[in-house]
Amino acid sequence: MPTDVIMPQMGESIFEGTITKWLKKPGDKVQRDEPLFEISTDKVDAEIPAPATGVLEAIKIAEGATVQVNTVVATIALDGEAAPASAKAAPAAPAKKSAAPAPVPAPAPAPAPTPSPAPSPAPKDAARSAPEEDDDHARSSPLVRKIAREHNVNLSQVTGSGMGGRITKQDIMAFVEGPAAAAASPSPPAPVAATAPAPVAKAVPAAPNIPGDLVAMTQMRKIIAQRMIESRRTSAHVHCMFEVDLSRIVQLRNKSKAAFEQRHGARLTFMPFFVRAAVIALQQFPIVNASIEEESIRYHPKINVGIAVALDWGLIVPVLKNAGDLNFLGLQRGIADLGERARSKKLKPEDVDGSTFTITNPGQFGAVFGLPIINQPNSAILGVGGITKAPVVVTDENGNDSIAIRPLVHLTLGYDHRLIDGAVADQFMAFVKKTLENWSEDVG
């Protein structure tokens, strides 16, 4: 009996997920715990492993579809149980699937007429019709809409075979190839839509960032947009910036990084210095680690630092839990682990929950400083600019001034003025600056 692959519940508050990519196609051999598909939820993007070893028999939910948790999204035929899905696809729906394999010649010429003969309703071309754009986005993926534009196809003429009438890659390709093939794609149950062969998708790869193109937001981008607007509406954003001389830390890092890596098997980066300085300051100024709950202030007993990680497909903030209990080496290892798992889609929902303070590092991309938006429900966020050498005036012990070249960094604190006064924010940052400029802690 085939094993069902279900949409997992990625956390107690998660009730649905969007399948963003299938990593296997029907008929492919899969190993237990091997990544099978990728999903996006309102918490994380993650790779979901195969629950068993066998052959991927059928994909029941197409890419781009959002379904409830515990929905069966595919089936795996266990080893020795059944033939590959490619051999079983024909008997599953013999009459309806004749168009899916694609070599059926189109009996009628000019499959997609340029002057759309549709009557009064406005065309549903996602590239042109803004009022009905959301309807197209709900019924098709960016790849489907791109194929439609390339072939001048009005998506309102295409019958979707996916869940809820969603137009799949198979549907649009069948329509492009000819009316007879298009007619063979009514609204069958989900398993029929699932057996669309992956090679069709590869034949027409998505080309991102085409000038003039209109591409639907990913689930992650929608969530980022929503949360940034919510944060701006929620918090009274104010920023202050401090210039910090990192001479002592740069010298210490240059001296210790080779031995540190050899001893601990980890690179010695600058980020744990900033995190450690912030943690020490948060212990001195607990109001910066607090948050507002209605008309009360919640003072958090633990310091959980969110570390913003830039991804190729968006931004995520995994959380370094109990950062106040970690030494320097623990901070370095924790930061590296969260960053690696964020980029490889291995984070769990609990890894992005519970932050009390956030640090972001626009300086890694060359920014001198940034004005970051607060990560709700935090009350403050620290932005780390790029470390650059610059001439500064230095005063010796005798009060004499001179010009010296020093490595400088600009640190910006974005804070919620409803909770944190300007004087407190400045005192907090002065403490961070003093800790960094007079660094005396052993790095291990």
Q: What this model shows, in words?
A:
The protein is an alpha+beta fold and 444 residues long. The chain has 12 helices and 19 strands. Strands 9, 12, 15, 16, 17, 18 and 19 form a 7-stranded mixed beta sheet that branches. Strands 1-8-6-3 form a 4-stranded antiparallel beta sheet. α3 runs parallel beside α4, α10 packs across α11 and α10 crosses α12. About 19% of the residues have low confidence.
Q: What portion of residues belong to β-strands?
A: 15-25%
Question: What is the mean predicted local confidence, pLDDT?
Answer: 79
Measured distance between first and last alpha carbons = 55 Å
β-strand number: 19
Radius of gyration: 27 Å
Question: Treating each run of at least 4 consecutive H or I residues as one helix, how many helices?
Answer: 12
Poorly predicted sequence stretches spanning 5 or more consecutive residues:
83-138, 180-207
Helix % is: 25-40%
| Biggest pleated-sheet summary | 7 strands, mixed
Coarse structural class:
alpha+beta
Shape: elongated
List the helices and strands and how they pair.
Blueprint: E1 3-6, E2 16-22, E3 29-30, E4 35-40, E5 45-49, E6 54-59, E7 66-68, E8 72-78, H1 85-92, H2 133-139, H3 142-150, H4 169-177, H5 179-183, H6 190-194, H7 198-203, H8 219-234, E9 237-245, H9 247-264, H10 271-284, E10 291-293, E11 296-298, E12 305-307, E13 309-311, E14 314-316, E15 319-320, H11 328-343, E16 357-360, E17 380-384, E18 388-395, E19 401-416, H12 422-437
Parallel strand pairs: 12-16, 16-17
Antiparallel strand pairs: 1-8, 2-4, 2-7, 3-6, 4-5, 6-8, 9-19, 10-11, 12-15, 13-14, 17-19, 18-19
Helix pairs in contact: 3-4, 10-11, 10-12
